[in-house]
Design brief:
The structure is a single chain. The longest helix is centred in the C-terminal third of the chain and has 13 residues, at 259-271. The chain is globular and about 60 Å long. It has helices spanning 37-47, 62-68, 72-80, 84-95, 110-115, 118-121, 141-152, 214-219, 231-239, 259-271, 277-289; strands at residues 6-10, 31-32, 35-36, 52-57, 98-103, 126-129, 133-136, 156-161, 171-180, 183-191, 202-210, 245-248, 252-255. It is built from 11 helices and 13 strands. The protein has a single domain, classed as Alpha-Beta Complex (Spore Coat Polysaccharide Biosynthesis Protein SpsA, Chain A). It is an alpha/beta fold. The strands form 3 sheets. It has a 9-stranded mixed beta sheet with strand order 5-4-1-6-11-8-12-10-9. A two-stranded antiparallel sheet has the order 2-3. The protein binds uridine 5'-triphosphate. Uridine 5'-triphosphate (UTP) binds at residues 10-17, 27, 56, 104, 107-110, 112-113, 130-132, 257.
Length: 290
């Protein structure tokens, strides 16, 4: 077990960029090769030593709860048919880690989604995982962040250098001090800056280790122009009271929350699957020639 046990997965957003696929299905359940996107993040948390996942859900998200629940009927069916491989896979999913659920009544922003997990988190450090960002890394991204947290004893945000033309899609950090090895003390945070106003190209990606003092900071954060409480703005409040750190993750990140990113992730993971890669490569070559 690690010094950080609980991971909050905000999953109450509406997924409008994926309509119509997300009209009656949560975007977290869209499938990359043969696993729903959210399962990649859950497996990362389990592999990083976490023991509890707090899922922040909303209307229309029941499929996520069912996916991680034990399905006695399905297990007995597979057992009776001698389908041992599938049975092992299904059992693994529901016994990976403990799940707790809390509803965000209205999608009032990522900061608000984190705030509704307050009682379930309690007075201990915790992670926030945005399942859209699927990260292939060894050690896993969350484990990398926890190692930095254990050293600096303060909130740690995962960051990635992005091309300047993309900074306006992210929260961006200004560096106060470089601590070496891709770890920085944060000087300021700006949510979705214009390209010419961005303090750096270090973009905050979907993994955070936070401390419980972020909750009062979020509660004191006003909604922005769009009516949402942004996590970045809450962290900015917190920065007035304590140092915050950022860490560049070593690994490959895919933003599956947009269509192109989703397609790239599908190709990336399919090419890494021993049972699919050869046939899939052949297909891609022929498709490109056509
Ligand atoms: P996004 O803005 O990327 O996701 O929020 P979205 O709102 O679901 O999708 P689009 O933009 O309409 O396509 C980042 C993360 O925060 C969660 C989302 O579920 C996603 O995991 N979120 C966002 C909440 O849980 N509640 C909110 O009010 C907003």
């Amino acid at each position: 077990m690690t010094s950080v046990r609980k991971a909050v997965f905000p999953a109450a957003g509406l997924g409008t960029r994926f309509l119509p696929a997300t009209k009656a299905q949560p975007k977290e359940m869209l499938v990359l090769v043969d696993k729903p996107v959210i399962q990649y993040g859950v497996e990362e948390a389990a592999a990083s030593g976490f023991d509890t996942i707090i899922l922040v859900t909303g209307r229309g998200k029941n499929a996520i709860e069912d996916h991680f629940d034990i399905s006695i009927e399905l297990e007995s069916f597979l057992e009776a048919r001698g389908k041992t491989e599938q049975l092992a896979e299904i059992r693994k999913i529901s016994r990976l880690i403990n799940f707790a659920y809390v509803r965000q009544g209205e999608p009032l922003g990522l900061g608000h989604a984190v705030l509704v997990a307050r009682d379930l988190v309690g007075q201990e450090p915790f992670a926030v995982v945005l399942g859209d960002d699927v990260i292939d890394a060894d050690p896993p991204a969350l484990r990398q962040l926890v190692s930095v947290f254990e050293r600096v004893q303060g909130p740690v945000l995962a960051v990635e250098r992005v091309p300047e033309e993309h900074v306006s899609s992210y929260g961006v950090v200004a560096v106060a001090e470089s601590l070496g090895g891709g770890v920085y003390r944060v000087g300021d945070l700006v949510e979705k800056p214009k390209r010419e106003e961005a303090p750096s190209n270090l973009a905050i990606i979907g993994r955070y280790i936070l401390t419980p003092d972020v909750f009062p900071a979020l509660a004191a954060t006003r909604a922005d122009r769009t009516g949402e409480i942004q996590l970045t703005n809450g962290l900015r409040q917190l920065l007035q009271q304590r140092p915050i750190y950022a860490c560049e993750i070593e690994g490959v990140r895919h933003d599956t929350g947009n269509k192109l990113g989703f397609l790239k992730a599908t190709v990336y993971f399919a090419l890494r699957r021993p049972d699919l890669s050869e046939a899939f490569k052949d297909y891609l070559r022929s498709a490109l020639e056509r």
